């Protein structure tokens, strides 16, 4: 793993002058991930915040080659570029080496881009697909995605009197990607950026397609102070809502076990989108959410070979 | 007479003829997904890939949306990219068709024309291509397998010309051409290859000396200018289409342009038609001529850019014109080709009539075509769309 | 780049033919708080450099060098990631710096 001091000697690929909100965690993700690449890079982005803020004509925040095509097809688009690369290499028309990273937000990855992602991964294109997961369609005005957590208030799941926020739990996309038998799959958080850096280096070195799902808070959508973007991305991990783990060749490995597993409330409180969960009438929602997180955490521990006997039950 | 090079005569279906042209071009990347009646085209091409007859990277994508997306990625990566589809497949690509054109990527696509549901129907009409007529692609129609082959080879030269740089679709009528075996003449591989030439991209994501951003977001301050540039590509295309046709004629003796004028010199009335229906229409023209009726026909080869001027000139001496559309533009005054033709004829007093035929693969019989000619010669005028071969 | 160009004077396909042109775009004017650095307290861990969403922290030879005020949006993440025991960065209202 390259140290931050060493990384600081590299030139940023995702450069200053992009128009992300002040304190944007996905922008930090873009920057850190591309810094780790350290090679000729073709980056692709699905339509969304990071695409919009980084490529407003005639400006581009990309010092590497960059392509945006549409919302649901970054994986297919990078498939095409990677195929072009392979054929140019095979024909001896290109001497430079390239890495390929397809970036998508959770909307472009969990939802509308899932088919394109699945297809590209199944075909085995040599690329890293990195999802910056901010748990909603933030670019279009904070609508619910299948990654939006249970109970969260969004523009399409408002905290109403009758229906208090989103009624479904998050889709577990990382597990779906594990089922693709990829060379490398990992879950990371921008709150634990050294871990993320290590995972990106591993993913780019993996012999085949790789996938990393990075919790990257949107302070607008989560309704928190911009300066706390990293704090809440980190608390997601510390409460075990978003555990850090990796799967290499089907083998699960926990990246970090919180010294003390914090109650989910530590992550929920202070996020405006969950304010209504703390009303007495919604106490059962809080309980249900905590139970869900606990069960998933136990199951993950079991998969990582760290579970207690009883968690074997949970794994079934 | 043009000089003739070594050619061979083969009996191929339309799908096989296009696959043969693709094989000779040996494109870098092909993104494929099955759909009837295009499927066999890419079966054939996949055989060439797996037998090592081409160096193409074949991406067997999981949808047509991804086929066009991958073609965009490949073309942006600075290589020659192809795909092929029909009907619903094209409809699924629709969003990306505009992006491919907006990014000025010279992708070549074979469209095997098929109707769009519902109700579901796998047979030929032009409703699929017509839905994409404003996407910024060049559209070239083929009458038979020979033309499907010839148009495919020419499409690369047109699309990739520096002053055009527009994706190009060549179309062939589903089943009627795609699945019909006809004898055609093909160039030898070397001649075909040198006619098409080596591909040199204008821009590439894979140039380490110059990283580029493609697919940027243009706000109201620049979007309009980019669209105007695309129009310029379309304006430049006719000159290039003619130049490429001229070179192709010198190689093969087969003449291509925007229109094929059939017995038009002294014609008094004519039908304008595209695709395989031209063959049937020519038969009818011959039979009418035998009976002393001065009928003519114009086959439209290039629908985008639309040859307004040439068409107006070709029709200017007639008493009346009928346009046969294999597509309905619901709620419009006539079919899409009719709309273009009448617009081309603006200011002239020659009546232009709209006929719809052949939807969902219904055969166009000589009898139907003749009835349209009869209307023209008998001066039967009707401002509404008329239908050929429809049961009331 | 400030003057808008006509359609004949821009590359086709909305391509931006050079990388990193956004660097010319000023985002510093968005700032309402300004980071202030205390050289004496700083341990040059560069976590602030690594976590700045806007690359507005300058590093040289592995050491903190300063802020890029043309791009700093004043989010305060640098002050938050600075280890609590170090506390080398504080956020001050931008109004304090106006004349």
State the gist of this model.
By secondary structure, chain A is α/β, with parallel strands linked by helices. Chain A has helices at residues 4-7, 25-37, 49-54, 74-90, 106-111, 114-123, 173-178, 193-205, 219-222, 229-238, 265-268, 283-303, 311-315, and strands spanning 40-45, 65-68, 98-105, 128-133, 184-189, 210-215, 245-248, 251-254. Chain A has one domain (4-278): Thiamin diphosphate (ThDP)-binding fold, Pyr/PP domains (Rossmann fold).
Topology of helices and strands:
The complex is a heterotrimer of chains A (316), B (392) and C (99).
Chain A: H1 4-7, H2 25-37, E1 40-45, H3 49-54, E2 65-68, H4 74-90, E3 98-105, H5 106-111, H6 114-123, E4 128-133, H7 173-178, E5 184-189, H8 193-205, E6 210-215, H9 219-222, H10 229-238, E7 245-248, E8 251-254, H11 265-268, H12 283-303, H13 311-315
Parallel strand pairs in A: 1-2, 1-3, 3-4, 4-6, 5-6
Antiparallel strand pairs in A: 5-7, 7-8
Chain B: E1 7-12, H1 14-25, E2 29-32, H2 39-50, E3 57-60, H3 64-76, E4 81-85, H4 87-102, E5 108-113, H5 127-131, E6 138-141, H6 145-160, E7 168-173, E8 182-187, H7 189-196, E9 213-214, H8 223-252, E10 259-262, E11 269-273, H9 277-290, E12 295-300, E13 302-304, H10 308-315, E14 320-325, H11 336-344, E15 352-357, H12 366-378, E16 386-388
Parallel strand pairs in B: 2-3, 2-4, 4-5, 5-7, 6-7, 11-12, 11-14, 14-15, 15-16
Antiparallel strand pairs in B: 1-8, 6-13, 10-12
Helix pairs in contact in B: 1-2, 1-6, 3-4, 6-8, 9-12, 10-11
Chain C: E1 33-37, H1 47-51, E2 57-60, E3 63-67, H2 77-81, E4 89-93
Antiparallel strand pairs in C: 1-4, 2-3
Structure characterization notes:
The complex is a heterotrimer of chains A (316), B (392) and C (99). Chain A is an alpha/beta fold and 316 residues long. Chain A has a single domain (4-278), classed as Rossmann fold (3-Layer(aba) Sandwich). Helix content of chain A is 38%, strand content 14%. Chain A has 13 helices and eight strands. In chain A, helix 2 crosses helix 8 (193-205). With 392 residues, chain B is α/β, with parallel strands linked by helices. Chain B folds into two domains: 7-252, Thiamin diphosphate (ThDP)-binding fold, Pyr/PP domains (Rossmann fold), CATH 3.40.50.970; 259-388, Rossmann fold, CATH 3.40.50. Chain B has helices at 14-25, 39-50, 64-76, 87-102, 127-131, 145-160, 189-196, 223-252, 277-290, 308-315, 336-344, 366-378, and strands at 7-12, 29-32, 57-60, 81-85, 108-113, 138-141, 168-173, 182-187, 213-214, 259-262, 269-273, 295-300, 302-304, 320-325, 352-357, 386-388. In chain B, the strands form three sheets. In chain B, strands 3-2-4-5-7-6-13 form a seven-stranded mixed sheet, with helices on both faces. A six-stranded mixed sheet of chain B has the order 10-12-11-14-15-16, with helices on both faces. Chain B has a two-stranded antiparallel sheet with strand order 1-8. In chain B, strand 14 (320-325), helix 11 and strand 15 (352-357) form a beta-alpha-beta unit. In chain B, 56% of the residues are buried. Chain C is 10% helix and 19% strand. Chain C is of the alpha+beta class. Chain C has a two-stranded antiparallel sheet with strand order 1-4. A two-stranded antiparallel ribbon of chain C has the order 2-3. Chain C is built from two helices and four strands; from the N terminus they run βαββαβ. The mean pLDDT of chain C is 96. Chain C has a domain at 44-99: Alpha-Beta Plaits (2-Layer Sandwich). Chains in contact: A-B, A-C, B-C. The interface between A and B is large, with 46 and 43 residues. Strand 2 (65-68) of chain A pairs parallel with strand 9 (213-214) of chain B, so a sheet runs across the interface.
């Amino acid at each position: 793993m390259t140290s931050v001091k060493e990384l600081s000697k590299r030139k940023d690929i995702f450069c200053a002058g992009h128009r992300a909100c002040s304190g944007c965690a996905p922008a930090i993700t873009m920057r850190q991930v591309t810094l780790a690449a350290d090679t000729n890079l073709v980056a692709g982005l699905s339509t969304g915040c990071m695409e919009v803020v980084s490529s407003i004509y005639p400006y581009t925040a990309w010092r590497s080659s960059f392509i945006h095509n549409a919302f649901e097809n970054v994986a297919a688009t990078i498939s095409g570029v990677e195929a072009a690369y392979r054929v140019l290499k095979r024909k001896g028309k290109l001497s430079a080496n390239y890495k390929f990273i397809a970036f998508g937000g959770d909307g472009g990855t969990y939802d509308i881009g899932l088919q394109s992602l699945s297809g590209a991964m199944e075909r085995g294109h040599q690329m890293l697909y990195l999802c910056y997961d901010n748990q909603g369609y933030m670019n279009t005005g904070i609508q619910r995605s299948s990654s939006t957590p249970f109970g969260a208030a969004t523009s399409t799941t408002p905290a109403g009197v009758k229906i208090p926020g989103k009624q479904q739990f998050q889709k577990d996309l990382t597990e779906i990607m594990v089922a693709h038998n990829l060379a490398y799959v990992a879950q990371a958080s921008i709150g634990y950026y050294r871990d993320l850096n290590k995972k990106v280096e591993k993913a780019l070195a993996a012999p085949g397609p790789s996938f990393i799902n990075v919790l990257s808070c949107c302070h607008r959508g989560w309704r928190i102070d911009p300066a706390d973007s990293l704090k809440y991305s980190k608390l997601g991990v510390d409460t075990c809502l978003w555990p850090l783990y990796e799967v290499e060749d089907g083998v699960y490995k926990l990246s970090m076990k919180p010294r003390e597993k914090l109650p989910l409330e530590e992550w929920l409180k202070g996020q405006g989108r969950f304010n209504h969960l703390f009303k007495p009438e919604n106490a059962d929602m809080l309980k249900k959410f905590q139970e869900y997180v606990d069960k998933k955490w136990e199951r993950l521990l079991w998969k990582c070979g760290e579970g207690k006997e009883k968690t074997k039950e949970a794994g079934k | 007479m043009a000089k003739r090079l070594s050619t061979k005569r083969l009996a191929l279906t339309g799908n096989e003829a296009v696959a043969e042209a693709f094989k000779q071009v040996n494109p870098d990347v092909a993104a494929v997904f099955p759909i009837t009646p295009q499927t066999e085209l890419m079966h054939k091409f996949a055989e060439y890939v797996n037998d090592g007859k081409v160096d193409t990277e074949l991406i067997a994508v999981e949808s047509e949306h991804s086929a066009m997306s991958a073609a965009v990625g490949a073309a942006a990566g600075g290589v020659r990219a192809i795909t092929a589809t029909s009907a619903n497949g094209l409809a699924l690509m629709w969003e990306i068709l505009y992006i491919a054109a907006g990014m000025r990527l010279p992708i070549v696509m074979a469209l095997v024309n098929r109707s769009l549901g519902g109700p579901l129907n796998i047979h030929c009409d032009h409703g699929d291509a017509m839905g994409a007529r404003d996407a910024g692609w060049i559209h070239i129609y083929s009458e038979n397998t020979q033309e499907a082959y010839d148009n495919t080879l020419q499409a690369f030269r047109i699309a990739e010309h520096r002053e055009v740089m527009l994706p190009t679709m060549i179309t062939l009528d589903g089943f009627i051409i795609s699945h019909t075996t006809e004898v055609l003449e093909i160039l030898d591989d070397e001649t075909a290859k040198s006619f098409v030439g080596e591909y040199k991209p204008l821009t590439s994501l894979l140039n380490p000396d110059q990283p580029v951003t493609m697919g940027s977001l243009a706000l109201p301050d620049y979007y309009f200018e980019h669209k105007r540039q695309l129009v310029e590509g379309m304006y430049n295309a006719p000159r290039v289409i003619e130049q490429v046709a001229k070179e192709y004629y010198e190689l093969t003796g087969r003449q291509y342009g925007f229109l094929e004028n059939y017995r038009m010199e002294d014609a008094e009335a004519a039908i304008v038609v595209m695709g395989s229906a031209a063959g049937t229409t020519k038969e009818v023209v011959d039979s009418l001529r035998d009976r002393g009726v001065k009928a003519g026909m114009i086959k439209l080869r290039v629908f985008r850019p639309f040859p307004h001027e040439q068409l107006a000139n070709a029709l200017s001496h007639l008493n009346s014109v009928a346009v046969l559309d294999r597509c309905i533009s619901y709620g419009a005054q006539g079919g899409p080709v009719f709309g273009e033709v009448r617009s081309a004829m603006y200011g002239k007093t020659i009546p232009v009539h709209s006929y719809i035929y052949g939807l969902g693969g219904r055969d166009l019989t000589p009898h139907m075509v003749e009835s349209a000619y009869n209307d023209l010669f008998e001066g039967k005028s009707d401002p509404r769309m008329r239908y050929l071969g429809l049961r009331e | 780049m400030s003057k808008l160009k006509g359609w004949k004077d821009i590359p086709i396909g909305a391509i931006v033919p050079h990388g990193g042109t956004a660097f010319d775009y000023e985002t510093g004017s968005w700032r309402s708080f300004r980071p202030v650095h205390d050289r004496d307290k700083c341990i040059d861990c560069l976590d602030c450099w690594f976590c700045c969403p806007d690359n507005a922290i300058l590093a040289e030879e592995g050491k903190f060098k300063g802020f890029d005020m043309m791009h700093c949006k004043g989010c305060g993440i640098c002050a938050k990631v600075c280890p609590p025991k170090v506390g080398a960065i504080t956020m001050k209202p931008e109004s304090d710096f106006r004349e």
